[in-house]
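Worked Example 4.2. Consider the chain below.
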Amino acid sequence: MLLTLVFLFVIGYMAIALEHPIKVDKTASALLLGMLMWVYYALNCDSILPGVNPEGLAAYVAEAGLSDQPLHTQCLQYLLNVDIIEHMGDITQTLFFLIGAMTIVELVDVHGGFTVITDKITTRNKRRLLWVICGVTFILSAVLDNLTTTIVMIMLLRKLISNQQERWLYAGMVVIAANTGGAWSPIGDVTTIMLWVKGNVTTGALISFVLLPSIVALLIPLLIITTKLTGTMNDEIKSAIPNAGITTPRERKVIFWLGICGLLFVPVFKAFTHMPPFVGILLSLGVLWVYTEIFYNRKKLEKSKEHRLTKVIQRIDMSTILFFLGILMAVAVLQSTGILSTAAQWLDVKVHNVYVINTLLGALSSIVDNVPLVAAAMGMYPVEPATAVGYAANFMVDGTFWEFLSYCAGVGGSILIIGSAAGVIAMGLEKISFGWYLQRFSLLALLGYLGGAAVYFIEAEYLKPFLM
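Applying the procedure from the previous section yields the following structure tokens:
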């Protein structure tokens, strides 16, 4: 029974990884995978549950008064009323957070808010421009999602650089900068959001111990690419402001800072109220919604020219949201059936080194999506109590395993252009070939990845013990 679930997951995972060759959208594969696995689990729950969670099943049967019911009925009711509800509670927290964050970003973008940043970039020196672009990308991706950050920066590069081959060098560094920038922020990448929302890491510890490795992972390839650029740009900067006739420069600044402050408010909100992050992001979205309603009520524009939130929310990528739903539901089955815990025990016995495990996971994330990798790792290892000692201490809140997982899953995706959302979007927008990136950036990204990993190892082994 369990082998069938593993087989289904592997087949579904291969379909996701081979999205482009088989010409089937990965969201369709993820949804089909997740739902099929839950259906199979439900049909065979009486053969799986008693061996995986006998205590929980017995307690539920006694409490629900199902002692006189057949075993399959007891197991099915436990699955429907306990298992799937608990997992959906965790999953929907992540999905609601993503929906709120993506809507805020779209709201800022459609009103030209990001021109507040892009208009400040005026240098024509090639080397200086590369450092400015990478610095802005690194910081933006810590607040926005990597996908949006990459889109904004690629669009900016099109205004600044007309030569495609030269622009590709900048775009390759944007991919690396976006991935390294998202790894150290609790809201910078989907994987860090997952770890933060579930309470595996806290904001302070993530920034304290993952920021420096992320900077190193960016600096190594950046310094090498800088040597390949000389001279100045001859192109004139082309300006293009979304909905320029609707918003004034002052209004664009207001919407930009409202959006950015709304996103930055969420970690502060969680720290003070201990409420789930999705509450904070939806609170910020509510404030922006009210502001834009008042904004358009005063403008008195034609309905077709308005970009109220009810219209903007249609722009968010629901395909991405459904992909996360499908893959997280599939991983939830592996967790409920004990498959992930068995895999964790095998790794503990055979490898027993959190640095090796995470480094391998990071390298693997350059080939397959890092969301299911991180979800699987979270399902394999429970968060240990603060009193844990020895090897188990690596899995406490802010433990070495979780911090290093955030770094590896985020930064490792830069090794291949297909390994991250930033890479895929740059590949699509700029038509960068897989081979071109492999030849010019993969080794540089790998060197940066390993360099940052070495920095984290030094921090965790020699610095962290004195600070804890």
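The radius of gyration is 23 Å. The first helix runs from residue 2 to 17. Compare this with Example 4.1 before moving on.
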